[in-house]
Amino acid sequence: MSSKSQIRQNYHTESEGGVNKQINMELYASYVYAAMAFHFDRDDVALENISKYFKECSDEEREHAFN
Questions:
Q1: End-to-end distance of the chain based on CA atoms, in angstroms?
Q2: Is 64 within any annotated ligand binding site?
Q3: 3-state secondary structure string across the chain
Q4: Does residue 62 belong to any structural domain of this protein?
Q5: Among residues 31, 34, 65, 66, which one has the fewest Cβ atoms lying within 10 Å of its Cβ?
C-alpha cells in the first residue's frame, strides 16, 4: 500500500470541513452496514445472502471514504 502525503494543502476552511464531513458520513454508513451484516450473520438469524449484501455495501462505503 502506498503512503499518502500527510502534507496539509491550502484549502479554504469550509472546503476542508466539507470534505472531512463527507468522509465521516461515508465511514458512518460503512459501520452501520457492517453492523447489519453481522446481525444477519448470527446463528439465530442466519440470513447469509442478506449478510453478504450488507458486507458488500460496507466495503463500498469504506472505499468511498478512502479513495
A1: 13
A2: yes
A3: CCCCCCCCCCCCHHHHHHHHHHHHHHHHHHHHHHHHHHHHCCCCCCCHHHHHHHHHHHHHHHHHHHC
A4: yes
A5: 66
**Beta carbons of 41 and 48 less than 8 angstroms apart:** yes
Residue-number span of the structural domain to which 43 is assigned: 30-66
pLDDT tens, per residue, the chain with 67 residues = 556 666 667 888 898 899 999 999 999 999 999 999 999 999 999 899 999 999 999 999 999 999 8
User: Residue 4 domain-assigned?
Assistant: no
| Residue 16, annotated as binding a ligand | no
Is 39 a known ligand-binding residue? no
List, in order, residues 6 or more apart from 16 with CB less than 8 Å away: none
